Structures are given as structure tokens and as C-alpha cells.
Amino acid sequence: MDITKYENKNLICLKTGAKAKIINYFDDQNASFVKVNINVKFNDTTLQVLKTIELEELRKQFKFV
User: Fold this and answer.
1) 2-40: per-residue pLDDT in tens?
2) Contact at 8 Å (CB) between 61 and 49?
3) What is the pTM of this model?
4) How many domains does the chain have?
5) How far is the CA of 64 from the CAs of 28, 30, 43, 45, 53, in angstroms?
6) Which of 38, 13, 40 is nearest to 23 (CA)?
């Protein structure tokens, strides 16, 4: 999967429905990782969460929009 074409594209978290974007991609010792910026809304408050996960987990936890 060529992840570079998906950087700054919109994602949706499958568990919470929160909007997210891939902001960085890197390889480390035979594993690929992505850094995801997640915007979570609680009532009138919006939180920004940075999460680093393996590329395989990205496919399980997020959907490309």
C-alpha cells in the first residue's frame, strides 16, 4: 500500500466515528507506522489526539473517506 498518497486525507475512526488524518509515515525494523491526528468532540469541546500505530492496525481501526 502506497501510504504517501493518503497523507492528509480524511479518515473516520470505526469505534468512535471521530475524524482523523494521517500526518506522518515511517518504517522501523520491518514494521511500518503511521502517525494519526484524531479530532474527538465531547459536547462543546474538541480534543486533538496524536496516535502512532502500525499500518496493519490502521486498516482495522480507521476507514478512508
Assistant:
1) 666 667 778 999 998 999 999 888 887 788 888 999 999
2) no
3) 0.77
4) 1
5) 24, 24, 25, 24, 16
6) 38
The boundaries of the domain holding residue 18 are: 3-64
Q: Which cell numbers in the block locate residue 61?
A: 481501526
Longest dimension (CA), the chain: 42
Amino acid at 38: I
* C-alpha cell recorded at residue 46: 474538541
Q: Extract the C-alpha cell encoding 25.
A: 509515515
DSSP character for 65? -
**pLDDT for 55 beyond 90:** no
